[in-house]
Target: Cytidine deaminase
Amino acid sequence: MNDIELIKLAIKAKENAYVPYSKFKVGAALITEDGSVYTGCNIENASYSPTICAERTAIAKAISEGHRKIIKIAIVGDSKYTYPCGVCRQVIREFGKDSQVIIANSEEDFKKYNLAELLPNSFGPEDLIKEVKDDV
Ligand code: THU
Model:
């Protein structure tokens, strides 16, 4: 699956966005370590805060099917370049410390980042492994 194919899937997933409140559609498509592909869209809620972003919908689908590593995720939204929100950056971090993030305006016009560029000095699972510190 190349970048253009992945972007096409994100564009397609965006069509299913449920956005009666913001009217702002987002689609995402990701590739896992073994090459599996999952897509997602944003799903809003009348109570607002239960809203889930497109990226986290796709990630939840992948993780619930047993995957644990994300290699790449493409995101397409209603703004020219829709960057992942802070919460989604942290959730991508959990399963894709070294992942690539594609922010696409279209299948011909996109930008590519390493997750670490979008979330520098991040906190992740490794930080919870306690080490004995010399000076305490
Ligand atoms: N949204 C996403 O789906 N992904 C992001 O990273 C940014 C925001 C959605 C959430 C909400 O449904 C709409 O865009 C407006 O914030």
